[in-house]
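fyi for ur records
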Amino acid sequence: MKFIPINPIQHREVTITFRRDSYKVSFGHDRNFDDEEYIKFLDVKVSQFPSGFVLVKERGEFIGQLELSIRLYEGRQIGYVHLFYLIPKERGTGKGFKLYSYAKDFFEKHHVNEFHLRVSPTNKRARRYYEKMGMRELKPEVNGKVIRMVGEI
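which gave:
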C-alpha cells in the first residue's frame, strides 16, 4: 500500500469520484457537491499539507484517499480529518487500519494531541469503525446533520 501526494490536476477525476462517493454514502446523495469548488479546496490544502492529502494505491489501483490538516478549534490546534475513504470493495478488509495509522502518524508529526472529524449520523458503519479505533462522539453539529468525533494521539 502506497500513500501518494494528491496532485489536484493530475488526480482530478479520481479525487472527485472518491469525494462524490463519500457524499453518497454519508448523505444518500451528492447534490450539494461542486466539482470546481472541491478542486479549489484541494489546491489550497495540498499546498498547506502535502503529506496530509494523499491517495492510497495498491496493486496499481487507487483504493482510497485521506485528507488531513491542522486547524484551530475552540482556541487550540487540533488535527482534522476532512476525508477518510476506501473504495467499496476494500471496506471491511482491515485496510482502514493502515489509513488510520497514517493519519495518527501525520498528526503526531504536527504535534497535536487530538484530532476530529465529522460523520453523518446515518453512516452507522463509519461511526462504528471510528469508535472501534478509539474515537468518541463529541457533539452534534450543523443542526444535527453531522456528529463531531474526537480521537487522541
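The chain has one domain: 2-152. thats all i got for now
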